[in-house]
Amino acid sequence: MSNILQIEQLFGGYLPKKPVLKDVNISLRKGEMVGLIGLNGAGKSTTIKHILGLMIPQQGKITINDMQLSEQMEKYRSSYAYVPENPELYNELTVREHLELTAMAYGISKEDYTNRSERLLKEFRMQEKADHMPSQLSKGMKQKVMIMNAFLVEPPLYIIDEPFLGLDPLAMRSLLETMSNLRKNGASFLISSHILSTIEKYCDRFVILHNGQVIGQGTLAELQAGLDIDPHENTSLDDMFHQYITQADTRNPL
Q: In this protein, which residues make up the domain named ABC transporter (predicted)?
């Protein structure tokens, strides 16, 4: 089975010949949830920008559903939905109109739009806010709108950057339950988050980025095997992350 997302030997960044990312290799299979973790400035956002086509690789290749970034851009971009860390809404559109605009942009039928939008509004407790403008919404509610727009599309791949920021506990629960249900139908997720205790429970694998390089990758068991830890010891993702970063800094001091 081919991977939904394949990043091969990626070098990239903002300045020529000064790559932020150095030989990054990441794969994502159908129905898989992968956590992308790292310190601030590790290269997570830069990696995501390259996947989205907002930045062109200096070297290497990125494919989604066997389509390269440089090929069939319209089909490439319709293969994923992206939820940014900071909500970006149109001030002149209501919540419902944002959903309608997304449905039109992606060619979603009226019947599918109605069923999906009503379900999402209910799941995220936004029914009473459906006709409100962004100025009338809290930051958490704005984040819900971004999430609902992404889930409305139902693409094979979701790229989500810090999804839990600003969400209340019930909204977090709705988000995680919705992602779990979509996974059962084959959707894949790449999630960048600092909330390690939460993604530890839901992600199948993890990629640890540090100074633009992948320093650890795999399941919890595989990450633990890469450290000097008793395999029978119950070590949290947070503890393993700390050890991987410490180990990398010891080997390559600044």
A: 5-236
Average pLDDT over residues 5-21: 92
Rounded distance, CA 87 to CA 146, Å? Answer: 6
Task: Give the full edge-to-edge strand order of the sheet including 157-161.
Answer: 80-83, 157-161, 188-192, 33-37, 205-210, 213-218
Write the single-letter amino acid at 38.
Answer: G
Cα–Cα dist 172/184, whole Å: 19
CA 129/CA 82 separation, integer angstroms: 22
User: Which pLDDT score is estimated for 165?
Assistant: 83
pTM of the entire predicted model: 0.91
Going by the DSSP 8-state scheme, the letter that residue 143 receives in this structure is H
Contact 93, 127 (CB under 8 A): no
Q: Which of 58, 62, 49, 63 is nearest to 12 (CA)?
A: 58
For the chain, the straight-line distance linking the first and the last C-alpha, in angstroms and rounded, comes to: 41
Which residues in 48-126 belong to E strands, given as ranges? 59-64, 67-68, 80-83
Here the tokens at position 33 are 């949830």
**Residue 31 and residue 186 in contact, taking contact as beta carbons nearer than 8 Å:** yes
Q: What is the CA radius of gyration of the chain?
A: 19
Pairing assessment for the beta strands 205-210 and 33-37 based on DSSP bridges: parallel
Amino acid at 153: V
What are the tokens at 215?
A: 């320093």
